[in-house]
Design brief:
The protein has about 280 residues and is α+β, with helices and mostly antiparallel strands. The chain has nine helices and six strands, in the order E-E-E-E-H-H-H-H-H-E-E-H-H-H-H. The protein has a four-stranded mixed sheet with strand order 1-2-5-6, with no helix packed on it. Strands 3-4 form a two-stranded antiparallel ribbon. A hairpin with a 2-residue loop joins strand 3 and strand 4. Helix 2 runs antiparallel to helix 4 and helix 5 packs antiparallel against helix 6.
Length: about 280
């Protein structure tokens, strides 16, 4: 419930049960629902590009499974090795227990990229064409995942003395920054920027992907200052693990933006183009 103090302070007491539905021995969690919704909405957005640009939808199915597998494997591996290495190196079999939680978005991004690259190489799809369009479903997915994190009372913020905040009763009675909501809103704004800039970005190969990397990981670095550190060995590090992991992505994004200025738009599939010419 919301509580208002003297008309200026707004505090939300949050104690949502992570389990949305349960029947027999099966439980469906809010996080899972948001995760699945993000995949479905993102897939729908990507389908629009395939249809408009006359790319066979059968290729989209192969990309979907490769990317989802890459996201799960990459996110799980990076979480275990970057955030809790001592625990998981002592219990390597538990790395496979991804259903117990613990996924790192940086690893998910790398895994998705590897999965997409493998399929693109096999099917002669332009990886740059795909990446420029994947930014939209990825941002949609990111928004939904952070909303799922909020429902789960996880990846929460540090204590705050501001006039707003959230008490995550499943954690403690401290007023904290709802950093999951900050991040969801920031990704939604980034999505709006990408949509508004799309016609200009489309003129240059990889420009959309480069801007995406810069925006997303600048957001991540900025909001990590409001987030409780998840690494078990943070110690006296000047930046959090999440911030250090974000720096290379920003550097790569800036490099791609500079490189893309001299590039022509990427075409989707060499084989399809050749077939159309023969017709």
């Amino acid at each position: 419930f919301w509580s208002f103090t003297k008309g200026v302070q707004v505090i939300l007491t949050w104690n949502l049960d992570p389990v949305a539905l349960s029947f027999a021995s099966v439980s469906i969690h809010w996080y899972g629902l948001f995760f699945a919704s993000g995949l479905l909405l993102g897939t729908h957005a990507m389908k629009g590009f395939f249809v408009r640009e006359q790319v066979p939808l059968a290729l989209m199915d192969q990309l979907f499974y490769a990317i989802v597998a890459g996201v799960i494997i990459g996110a799980r591996l990076l979480h275990c090795l970057a955030y809790e290495p001592n625990y998981y190196l002592a219990r390597p079999l538990e790395i496979l227990y991804f259903w117990q939680g613990g996924l790192a978005s940086h690893g998910g991004g790398l895994g998705a990229l590897i999965g997409a690259a493998l399929v693109c190489h096999k099917k002669q799809i332009s990886l740059w064409w795909l990446l420029d369009r994947m930014v939209f479903p990825t941002l949609i997915f990111a928004v939904m995942v952070r909303l799922g994190n909020f429902c789960n009372s996880e990846i929460y913020g540090i204590p705050t003395n501001q006039s707003w905040g959230v008490i995550f009763e499943r954690i403690d009675q401290v007023v904290r920054h709802p950093v999951q909501l900050y991040e969801a809103i920031a990704y939604a704004i980034a999505l709006g920027i990408m949509v508004i800039s799309w016609s200009r970005l489309l003129k240059h190969r990889a420009a959309s992907f480069g801007l995406f990397l810069v925006l997303v990981f600048l957001i991540r670095i900025a909001l990590e200052f409001f987030k409780v550190e998840q690494a078990t060995y943070q110690g006296a590090m000047s930046l959090t693990v999440g911030q250090w992991l974000s720096v290379p992505f920003i550097v790569v994004g800036l490099f791609i933006l500079v490189w893309s200025r001299k590039q022509t738009p990427a075409l989707p599939i060499a084989a399809v183009q050749a077939q159309n010419k023969r017709k």
